[in-house]
Amino acid sequence: MINKCSRRGFLKVSGAATAGLAVTSLCPDKFLLWAEEQGMVKSTLVPTYCEMCFWKCGAFAKVINGRVVKLEGNPLHPHCYGRLCARGNGGLGLLYDPDRLKKPLIRTGKRGDGQYREASWEEALDLVAQKMTAIKEKYGPESVALFTHGSPTAHFFPLLKAFGSPNVAMPSSAQCRGPRVVAYDLTTGVDIGSPERLDMVNSKVVVLIGSHLGENMHSSQVHDFTEAISRGAKFIVVDPRFSTAAGKAHTWLPIRPATDMALLLSWIHIILKEGWYDKEYVAKYTNGFEDMLGEFDEYTPEWAAKETDLPAEQIYETARLIARNSPAVAIHPGRHVTWDGQDVQRLRAIVILQAILGTWGRKGGIYLPTKAGLQPVPPPKAFPKPTQKPLNTGDFPFPGYAGVTNAVRESTITEKPYPVKAWIISGVNPLAALPNQDETRQAIDNLDLLVAIDVMPMDTTMLADVILPECTYLERHDAITPLKGRDLRVAIRQPAIEPMYDSKPAWWIARELGQRLGLEDYYPWETYEEKLEEDCLVWDVDFDQLKKEGVVIVSDTSNPYIGPGNEPVFKTDSKKIELYSEALEMEDFDPLPRYRRNEQPAEGEFRLLYGRSPVHTFSRTANNPVLNELYPENEVWVNADKARAMGLKSGDYVAVVNQDGVRSNRIKVKATERIRQDCVYMVHGFGQTSKRLSRAYLKGADDQQLITKYKVDPISGATGMRVNFVKLVKEA
């Protein structure tokens, strides 16, 4: 075996280039790439799409002798323009992370003590099927719930529906962008999309409200962000923290946290009062404008200045800058919008602002999506109708399409209106996603069965009764992804190498489990590739071309702006943008957004804010060997003057203690002038407690641990989590 693959060492062992093929798997990736350049070895490029975050950029995996040595962006994929970010390149770290789950595990000790034994797939799946069947017979199929995110959803969602349970919920909704979806649905009937259909490259003004482009690293939007800057667009960044985006802004508005609604209502006030709104557009494409008149009179810039801690002159100036440049104004609605429990109405204010400026369907604003689409492929057999009321909608009138995770958790604790006795979790880490970890643990303690399907031994995974190791996205097929933007494309995921260890793809796990549950009629195919080929036949997509190129354009008809014969489609009752929402009024909610003051921190306290690092995805990548090296632990940002007054300097370790006395693991201080004095900021996803994560274990502090308080949005059921107040305690 060679310990160090130099050119001399390689030739000494191999004697010839052909003999070298037998030992290439022992060599570092850089050497294999060098050997390819020298003609010693050959590579193949396998098209796929990334799963290091939800953006799912197109990629090519370069494979040499059964090893993935490099990842490159696919220029045909509109989410990345042929470039991968640091996280995308970190896919190699995930693939070859020695801490990966390698075999099925069955719990042998008490839940949470980390005691497991290895099992065969047959034993593990038989056990899960037996327990699910017993729960179904005793409590009904609805007593099994699925928490899911990302590509595994395409496999386990149909499994749960076939089993008879409607209780599927996604933290990406109730803990992330759910209120945004509801706000757009109520107001326009059409979602703004993912990626958002912002025509930034043609914008004259871009407004970011708590949206950290450049730190969330959504590749195509970061590209559009930089392109807009190069074309002279002015950026208005509303953020208590001087973010990366704020560093590129024409105007940074360091707003008092939890007062964004006041700023938005004041902007609407100025635009209406001074007649800046697009009168022709409003008359043609909106409904309820007359009912708005006079409703925003009280929200003057002078009033808003007292609420937001921003100068009234700056509020006037930014409103007029936005208005003068409309409709070429891109107002980003944000993605993680679960802030304070008034989130649907805050997002409604953004949509109303977009509408009265005439930005929907206009160049530089929000472009219209292609009218082309893919017809749904029906299941091989109709799903049974649930016999009980779904729990994943809670008692909320507009819960969104992806379910209310916290409502399912609450029913698991209370057993009302009926018991939930099993959770299947796939691609999610509820302890790091849902607020109040004690409630999540209490719910898990009330389960008869917790099954985790994951690549890594995450915190929640290590509480499971049965752990099923999923292979990485570079080792599996998944559902074909439609890419609906200016045109319609589809992207394929296919394995670059065979699954390592004894891990399996999610489609195989779902199929094997389905067969054991008597649901074999839903799986009339032997391999997932067969199903993908059948789907392509339905959609008239060339499957061979798709496998070869990774992305295929289904329809290149792009007509993104309003014009003759190209009117926008609004799926509301009036077929227009509903400024005044009768749907909300019928449910006894404000038909127009109103301002309600949020609680502010007491003297000596800070509001806890959290966000993302450009090299990490939530809690998923903290252990990644490649990405951990770039950013191994998080810091707590503290205003420099406040830090000095507390005797703190950058590099000192502190504990963060919240209003309920919950104390974090130690975390480094970052004393900076780039944040207001009334808040602190942490990157999310650190301080993990799973001992099997050798690099991430107890590195940094867990912000989610400190989010014991949350405000539930009464319209959507989403959890506002930026309502916790903390103090800093210097560590000895």
Fold and architecture overview:
The chain has a seven-stranded mixed beta sheet with strand order 5-4-15-14-13-6-7. Strands 20-24-21-23-22-27 form a six-stranded mixed β-barrel. The protein has a four-stranded parallel beta sheet with strand order 10-9-8-12, with helices on one face. It has three domains: 105-169 and 395-484 and 487-555, Rossmann fold (3-Layer(aba) Sandwich), CATH 3.40.50.740; 180-367 and 574-586, Dimethylsulfoxide Reductase, domain 2 (3-Layer(aba) Sandwich); 606-730, Beta Barrel (Barwin-like endoglucanases), CATH 2.40.40.20. It has 25 helices and 27 strands. The protein has 732 residues and is α/β, with parallel strands linked by helices. Helix 8 (171-187) crosses helix 15 and helix 13 packs across helix 14 (312-324). The longest helix has 19 residues, at 121-139.
